[in-house]
Amino acid sequence: MTDLSQMTPWFSRDEYIGRVQKVQATLRERGYDALIAYLPESVTYLTGFFTRGYTSFQFAIIPVDAEPIVVCRDVEKYYLDSTCVYSDHYLWSDGRNPMDTGVRAIRDTLGASSSCVIELEAWPLTASRFAALEQGLPGTSFVDGSAIVSDMCLIKSPAEIAYQRQAGIIAETAMNAAIETAVAGASERDVAAAICSAIILAGGERPGPGVLSSGDRALYLHGAYTDRVLAPYDLVQVEVTPSVRYYNARFMRPIKASQATQEDHDLVSQLIAIQDRALNEVGPDVPADLPDSVYREGIVNTGLVERYTNKTFYGLGCHMDPNDGECLEAAPGCTWRFKAGMTFHTYLLVCGFGISETITITDSGYERLTQFPRQLFVT
Q1: SS3 state of residue 340
Q2: Is 287's pLDDT higher than 70?
Q3: Which of 49, 53, 90, 348 has the fewest CB atoms within 10 Å, counting from its CB?
Q4: Percent of the chain scored above 90 by pLDDT?
Q5: CA dihedral of residues 322, 328, 334, 340 (deg, nearest 10)
Q6: Is the separation of the CB atoms in 60 and 46 below 8 Å?
Q7: Strand 140-144 to 114-118 pairing
Q8: CA distance 373 to 172
Q9: Is pLDDT of 56 > 50?
Q10: Do 331 and 292 form a contact (C-beta atoms < 8 A)?
């Protein structure tokens, strides 16, 4: 079993060096002096540095011709030394303005006048923090470079996919726990606790269920668990979303408490067949709108909905709250194509019955990273 200790780099030093070199090649091609990476996932992806305290002020400077420099809170020094594959850093202390340290780090590294790309879409880079950078570095120009790292992350290395494959196995353990617990008389909170416990004990992170709702709320996406007690015939919509080293895999299965009708079973069989037809179209260089249209036509042809507006694929990788997915989504009008190494959550949800998988694109098609039986489960 993979060592899940977070007190070491998650990948080899060579893998981090290769990632940084790709960023530097992009900077050189575009004529910039550095990337200022603010998104926690970008900092970890490029330097290895990870702490659960990533919500504190931190970022990484990636110069075009030198090793990265990390700026972070001083109480994170243990995790910085344990996980970061690069040694240069600037630390700030509580009670002092962290922006002063950030401005000084950029000025010391790049000089008083430089041209930088910066991740303007990163949620930790607030408007006031960006204004402080511009005020403190009047000779530095900043342009948006939010897509540089996020685009690189779309193609996973074998080591990244291995973490997602392991997360998929943990997800199956969590779904088993959900099915065993979601009986009439149990509460949604009971089911959520069973899922969380299973994920933690199996070696996963981010243990909370993604979607968990029952009764009328099961008809709608993004329901969260409550104290509601399950009754016979209740539909339970469940999504399990564990991660390993914050690399995510997830899937959904429909559950009926105590009893289900033949119509329920027939609908789930229809949805599985629709998904199979869509996935049969998936492979490298395939336009994303092709399997997306198969999903939509199949769902509308059930006669249960007049139109289907939900996305059918979205990218999965390394996600730290509040982020929960990558930028690629399959919906009408999308123009991107599948490529080997991409990983997706693909799903359909009709009348509260959800069927989904995590898949990775291979050189010849795709691989399911979630192998749980596809059916309606009756507890």
Answers
A1: coil
A2: yes
A3: 53
A4: 95
A5: -160
A6: yes
A7: parallel
A8: 9
A9: yes
A10: yes
Per-position b or e across 27-44, b if 16+ CB within 10 A of its CB: beeeebbbbbbbbbbbbb
Spatial separation of the C-alpha atoms in residues 351 and 270, rounded to whole Å: 13
The identity of residue 302, as a single letter, is T
Quote the DSSP letter at residue 219: G
Query: Cα(338)–Cα(365) distance, rounded to whole angstroms?
Result: 10
Q: What is the reported pLDDT for 137?
A: 96
d(CA 77, CA 100) in angstroms, rounded, equals 18
CA distances from 292 to 65, 166, 314 (A): 42, 27, 11
* Local confidence band at 55 (pLDDT 50, 70, 90 cut-offs): very high
Q: What is the DSSP letter of 90?
A: E
Backbone angles phi, psi at 137, to 5 degrees: -130, 65
What value does the mean pLDDT take over residues 26-45? 97
DSSP symbol at 345: E
pLDDT at 2 over 90: no
Amino acid of residue 211: V
Closest among 311, 315, 316 to 330, alpha carbons compared:
311
The tokens describing 29, both together, are: 């091609």
Give the other-Cβ count within 10 Å of 115's Cβ: 16
Q: Please report, as a single letter, which amino acid is at residue 305.
A: V
Six token digits for residue 194: 């069973």
Q: Angle 40-47/146-153 helices, nearest 10 degrees?
A: 60
pLDDT one-digit tens code per residue, 175-207: 999 999 999 999 999 999 999 999 999 999 989
Write phi, then psi, for 350 (nearest 5 degrees): -130, 125
Structure tokens at 99: 């922006």
